[in-house]
């Protein structure tokens, strides 16, 4: 590769960009390590790719879904491919499963250490008593 020549965004294929984004989002590399590993010259190039193609929030303000929903309402969002939507939903599912495991662990601790019996309500049942006026 010619190091003296400046490269542009067009020099990188979409497949390459997506592979770098995936590597960073999996935690295999930081965006700076990816930049160094692949000889990407621009300081923010990988960050731009992460914001554009990644599933995580790289804006520092809103979660990805909320950011996309906001952009969608403003008419600025590009339609996502089925693969991008699947990836997004897989991340959301993984987060929901982690949250469920956390709640299960908290319930176990409460029951074991404090002797409190926690009864889980079946889904769809309200914890509030309905008052009927007659």
From TrEMBL:
Keyword Coiled coil in annotation: yes
MF terms in GO: sequence-specific DNA binding
Keywords recorded for this protein, A-Z: Coiled coil
Residues forming coiled coils: 86-113
Superkingdom of origin: Bacteria
The protein's name in its UniProt record: Mobile element protein
Upper taxonomic lineage: Bacteria, Pseudomonadati, Pseudomonadota, Betaproteobacteria, Burkholderiales
């Amino acid at each position: 590769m010619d190091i003296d020549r400046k490269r542009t965004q067009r020099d990188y294929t979409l497949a390459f960009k997506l592979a770098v984004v995936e590597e960073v989002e999996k935690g295999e590399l930081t965006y700076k390590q990816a930049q160094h590993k692949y000889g990407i010259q621009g300081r923010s190039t990988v960050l731009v790719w992460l914001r554009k193609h990644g599933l995580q929030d790289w804006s520092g303000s809103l979660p990805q879904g909320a950011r996309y929903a906001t952009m969608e309402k403003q008419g600025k969002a590009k339609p996502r491919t089925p693969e991008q939507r699947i990836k997004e939903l897989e991340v959301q599912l993984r987060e929901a499963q982690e949250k469920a495991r956390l709640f299960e662990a908290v319930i176990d601790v409460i029951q074991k250490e404090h002797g409190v019996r926690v009864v889980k309500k079946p889904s769809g049942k309200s914890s509030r008593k309905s008052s009927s006026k007659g």
